[in-house]
Design brief:
This protein has 14 helices and no strands. The chain has 266 residues and is mainly alpha-helical. The longest helix is centred in the first third of the chain and has 21 residues. It comes from Dictyobacter kobayashii. This is MalT-like TPR region domain-containing protein.
Length: 266
């Protein structure tokens, strides 16, 4: 059933069934927000997530409350609004004892990545790595790869863990360790947006190691895949890396020129 139809049905729904309708509304808003976020339509995605606030009052469901905070934190993270992302992630962390194992792991992984973006001391870096390790333990012990079926679907497996750990290591300035993490995954293990993200993370690690030619070739490989999937988030990551390459002594090399042509003229 569509969002519009559910809202139309709600006033005439029997009181005994209203909880089920409100839950369905929350879940559909979250699904819509996820799709819009990947398409780069952040404002519309945020609108859907914010529409769940009043619904939560009716539900009093920690799982859905934490889920929305987690999704909204991810949206802010993609926009580069780290402070707002951390506000939501840290609020979600306060509910971890009352939520499913997949959501626990997901919140910890993305909180670690956000904290890594602003870490400026050894103590903060160590805390980030401990949070990653905690997420890894949950994934392995609780077998979260099975997924969460009853609420908006959420799957957190070891592949997701390795990707997020690599991204966090890059943010901490450890591209060599990120490369090692990514070698634990093969391209054949991944599909969809994960396969694109894997290529982009490899490119980011190469950039951090000043392996500029390899970085350019990897994002060139990722570009048509991201376009086919209409993944605006990954396209923006590719554009960001292209701009970073332009600020290096490698900027006049043909690999960078070719990448620019493919990005902006095809």
């Amino acid at each position: 059933m569509t969002l519009k139809r559910l809202y139309e049905c709600y006033p005439t729904t029997a009181s005994s069934e209203r909880l089920e309708v409100v839950t369905a509304l929350c879940e559909l808003h979250i699904h819509a927000a996820n799709l819009l976020r990947d398409r780069g339509k952040f404002s519309k995605s945020l609108e859907h997530l914010n529409k769940t606030k009043d619904l939560h009052v009716l539900l009093n469901d920690d799982e859905l409350k934490a889920d929305v905070l987690y999704r909204r934190g991810g949206l802010y993270l993609e926009k580069g609004e780290i402070s707002l992302a951390l506000d939501d992630y840290h609020t979600a962390e306060q509910k971890l004892d009352n939520v499913s194992a997949p959501l626990q792991a997901a919140v910890l992984l993305e909180t670690a990545l956000s904290e890594a973006r602003i870490a400026d001391s050894k103590q903060q870096c160590t805390a980030v790595l401990k949070k990653l390790d905690q997420a890894g333990r949950i994934i392995r012990v609780e077998r979260t790869e099975v997924g969460r079926e009853k609420k908006p679907y959420l799957k957190v497996d070891l592949a997701r863990y390795h990707l997020d750990r690599a991204a966090t290591l890059i943010a901490l300035g450890n591209p060599d360790e990120a490369q090692q993490e990514l070698t634990l995954l093969s391209f054949s293990q991944l599909n969809g947006r994960r396969s694109v993200y894997h290529l982009i993370l490899q490119a980011q690690a190469c950039f951090g190691l000043k392996e500029y030619s390899q970085a350019a070739m990897l994002v060139e490989e990722a570009l048509p895949l991201a376009r086919t999937m209409r993944s605006r988030v990954n396209l923006e990551r590719i554009k960001t890396l292209y701009k970073q390459l332009q600020d290096t002594p490698f900027r006049n090399n043909p690999e960078v020129g070719r990448l620019g042509y493919l990005l902006f003229h095809t």
